[in-house]
Structures are given as structure tokens and as C-alpha cells.
Amino acid sequence: MQNINEIEELIKLIAKLPGLGPKSAKRIVLKLINNRDELVKPMANTLAQVYKNVIRCQSCGALKSNSLGCSNCENTNEKYNRICVVEDIADQWSIENSNIYKGYFHILGGTISSSGQRKEDLLINSLVERVIKEDIEEVILATSATVENSHKVYLWVVK
């Protein structure tokens, strides 16, 4: 294989994605290179737009566009009295796709762990604020059932 720095770097980056290793990354890079106009150019443009315009909501942790309000916590069409707390956005998407839950979501942004995540890095304070402000009656914790989580995640809700 030729050692082209740009390709090697792209393979390394793609291999960092969940579920992909170096072999899969190489196949993806070859597909991209062989379909430059149909895949690479639009993908590069879309990635640039996502990087520029999509952020996490500071209140609930959901993804939102810079130009629009948050469709999760600023939803004025429906009023819920419960909130489902998840670790990351992938968890929210899984629950939404199941169509078994109707209510607000709150994405913590990870767990408190020995890998360096601190309580201050999570959106716990904004969760408490939302529960009080929005008169939430039920908080559903849909986080990983680990010893670490059960000992390190604390929520104080005072009404």
C-alpha cells in the first residue's frame, strides 16, 4: 500500500469511530476515494456545517442547531410532567426510536468515572433546575446499571 499521509490520517480518524477498526476504515476510505464527487465533497460540506452549526443545549444536553431553539427542552407543543435522564445522545435516540416513552429528555453527557469525568462536567445542576422550574413529577434514570453509577451519581431534588 502506498504511504500517502492524507489517506493514512483519514484511516486513523475513521478507525476511531465506534465499531470500526483499521480494516473497516480502509474499506470506507477506498469507497470515499472511488466516489469523490458523490460522497467526499458532500460529506465534507455537511461535516463542516455540522461542526459550525450544531451544539449541545446547555440546559438539557440535546443536540440543537445554532439557528433554532432546542426541540427537546423548548418544546411548547406538548407539556410533560416527567423527564428521562440518559448518559448520552445515543441513549436518547434509542429510547425515542422505541416509541415507548413520551416526555422530556435530559442528557448528562457521560458518567462520573475514574476516566476523568467529573460531576461538574455533567449537566446535573441544570437537571435539578429543570425539575423545579418545569414542575416535573417523575424523574426516570435510564443510565447504565453499574456499581460506579449507583455510587457516584447523586441527584438532589427539592420541591
3D architecture notes:
With 159 residues, this protein is an alpha/beta fold. It folds into two domains: 5-55, Helicase, Ruva Protein, domain 3 (Orthogonal Bundle), CATH 1.10.8.420; 68-152, Dna Topoisomerase Vi A Subunit, Chain: A, domain 2. The chain has six helices and five strands. It has helices at residues 5-15, 22-34, 36-53, 89-98, 124-133, 147-152; strands spanning 54-56, 63-65, 82-86, 104-107, 138-141. The strands form two sheets. The protein has a three-stranded parallel sheet with strand order 4-3-5. Helix 4 (89-98) links the parallel strand 3 (82-86) and strand 4 (104-107). The longest helix is centred in the first third of the chain and has 18 residues, at 36-53. The chain is elongated.
Summary?
The chain has helices at residues 5-15, 22-34, 36-53, 89-98, 124-133, 147-152; strands at residues 54-56, 63-65, 82-86, 104-107, 138-141.
